[in-house]
Amino acid sequence: MTVASDPLLMLQQILADQAGDGAAELRLAVQRVIDGDEPSLDAALGLKPAAGERSWRTTAALEERNRLICETALTFFPGSSNRERAEAIAAGLERFRSGPDWWRYRARKTCPYPQGLKANFWLILKVLDQNLSADRVRKVLGCELGLFVTQKTADDSFNDQ
User: What is the domain range of residue 92?
Assistant: First the structure.
């Protein structure tokens, strides 16, 4: 039997005052964790991924990163092709990530830049701190902006294979 933690007991008390099917489902999930029938609240709510699947946190982070990449492409490179956008974003992210600005401000909770390309790079890296290749950025732009990854665009050359 799992020993209930104070946050779980507090959550159970909060949910006891709530009406509706959603609150009832949450109350049952919390109770299953308290009783030891489930190892965690993630598992009790069906949020724990199966083997080989991404967690909901990873999926949400990837979606947010992709949204920010598309916003960056459309805002700062409006007249460029997807290839040019991808190369500029990948190179800029790599430069920003390896430079002093990211290392100085990466632990901050809020973006130190009021706006601009550095602000977008900071937000992208804050979601997922990793380098991205131009190819990966291009695939993100292709999928998010309504193109299939295999679909050729006007900026694609034939020797790109």
Answer: 56-153
Q: Please indicate, yes or no, whether residues 145 and 110 belong to a single structural domain of this protein.
A: yes
Give the span between the Cα atoms of 91 and 133, in whole angstroms: 8
Number of CB atoms found within 10 A of residue 143's CB: 13
Please report, in tens digits, the pLDDT of each residue of the chain (161 residues total): 445 568 888 888 888 888 888 888 888 999 999 998 988 888 888 777 778 888 888 889 999 999 999 999 999 999 999 999 999 999 999 999 999 999 999 999 999 999 999 999 999 999 999 999 999 999 999 886 554 433 344 444 444 43
Q: Domain total for the chain?
A: 2
